[in-house]
Design brief:
This protein has 16 helices and 15 strands.
Length: 452
């Protein structure tokens, strides 16, 4: 079956569930299941190996199968498994579609997908149709059509899809979430976030090392540079919105009493990637002749149903320190992560910033108070532990995931919608309501306590 026919088949099958906007409650039990989670991994590159290592350290997880298309990644994963003392899982090394054989195993409860972006949708669809819980790396859908396919398939099969957006669990972000819920900042008016990260050494390497050392990408490169850089060649938009959007969306109840309604995006000229190639390999290198479509700075403004505004920025091609650029501002004050500062009217000195740390310590989230030691040493300052823990606990308990399919597609859809806005010269673009009206009735239960 060709890809177009397959898409049509999926779309027609999904129509059976189009009238549903919440996962069928009959398919999700709220009772705890003491059994171990039997986990499969689709993609064990460097990101997948990070998740694999966390899973191997858990007593409540059995890794029963892994799949990849590169022998080097399989070998590195086998070393991790051997070192853990756990049994060696079944290994699928059968080309790009070998993951389908993994999904045929009836003893797999859930899969974690960590593959190039362009594979995420089809793999999520196949996994949900195979009745597996799905934890997928950012992003889940590259087009609005793909996002709708994911929603309809999740609703029809009753299988949850959780995009593994780890920044929602960052310690300072969760403390600020706690502050928002305790009305420290008053009524929230405006929020900012983004992906401000110099990725030039990720987008180019020497074909042997994952980061830097050369200016190769595509077939001559290794790891992310072998696929990710091509998106910068072909696309102009906010290619990675979820790190900035996910956390602030949870603070203002998006899909749970509030929703994103429209956006407008603008893109700057693009110079950073070309200059990096020239500085490191000269004007005569073949890649110096490549035209990169992605603007160096992409700015997106989003409007919400309750009146809040959100500013997102994508900035990955220029030299800069890492920052997600968070700002949460309300009628009583604001937090900004760039200068690690907080100002609360009536408690801070007038017109002077407070160092944020004392506030963050005071409002440290219950999840971090309970599990901070368990997360110590895990990737990205411990937040990787929390996002995997949330996924595993949902599978064990047979409940929906705390970041659900509607979050996954709403956050992912910003990319194609921003591309459309830029292509139309900065036109305002409507953001679909993937909950089909249910956002008005759903409650925000994300991280309400120290459960998971």
């Amino acid at each position: 079956m060709n890809s177009l026919s397959r898409r049509n088949f999926i779309r027609q099958a999904a129509m059976a569930g189009a009238g549903l906007t919440l996962l069928p409650s009959a398919l999700l039990s709220k009772e705890k299941d003491p059994a171990k989670v039997r986990l499969g991994f689709i993609g064990v590159g460097l990101r997948g190996q990070g998740h694999l290592e966390l899973a191997l350290h858990r007593a409540d997880v059995d890794v029963v199968a892994i799949c990849d298309i590169q022998q080097r990644m399989i070998d590195m994963s086998k070393e991790l498994i051997t070192k853990s003392g756990k049994p060696m899982p079944q290994i699928f090394f059968d080309g790009p579609y070998g993951y389908k054989k993994l999904l045929e195993r009836k003893d797999i409860d859930a899969v974690i997908i960590a593959t190039p972006w362009e594979w995420h949708t089809v793999m999520c669809l196949d996994a949900m149709n195979a009745k597996k819980y799905v934890g997928c790396e950012v992003i889940t859908g590259m087009t609005v059509e793909e996002c709708w396919e994911l929603v309809h398939t999740s609703e029809r099969t009753g299988m949850p899809l959780m995009m593994l957006e780890n920044v929602c669990y960052r310690r300072d972000v969760m403390a600020v979430l706690n502050m928002v819920r305790q009305n420290v900042f008053g009524e929230v008016i405006h929020l900012q976030g983004g992906y401000q990260h110099d990725l030039r050494a990720v987008k180019f390497n020497n074909g042997k090392d994952p980061y830097g050392g050369g200016v190769e990408f595509g077939e001559k490169a290794f790891s992310e540079a072998s696929w990710r850089t091509q998106h910068s060649v072909l696309r102009d938009g906010d290619l990675y919105p979820t790190h900035g959007l996910g956390p602030v969306a949870m603070m203002i109840d998006i899909n749970r009493g509030n929703r994103l309604t429209e956006l407008v995006s603008y893109s700057s000229k693009g110079r950073g990637l070309h200059d990096y190639i020239v500085k490191n390999a000269g004007e005569n290198h073949p890649n110096a002749k490549v035209g990169f479509k992605l603007g160096d700075i992409v700015t997106t403004m989003i409007k919400c149903a309750r009146g809040e505004t959100i500013l997102l920025q994508h900035d990955t091609n220029l030299p800069r320190p890492y920052s997600l650029g968070f700002r949460v501002q309300g009628t009583n004050g604001l937090w900004m992560d760039v200068n690690n500062s907080i100002y609360v009217e009536g408690k801070s000195k007038p017109h002077e910033w407070d160092d944020a740390q004392s506030w963050l310590d005071k409002y440290d989230h219950p999840l971090w108070k309970k599990y901070g030691n368990d997360a110590s040493g895990a990737g990205h300052g411990g937040m990787d532990w929390f996002v995997i823990n949330a996924f595993i606990e949902a599978v064990k308990r047979k409940t929906n995931t705390p970041q659900d399919v509607y979050d996954a597609v709403t956050w992912s859809a910003i990319t194609p919608l921003s591309e459309t806005s830029i292509r139309l010269g900065g036109e305002t673009v409507e953001i679909p309501d993937f909950t089909q009206g249910q956002w008005m009735y759903r409650k925000n239960e994300f991280a309400r306590n120290d459960d998971y």
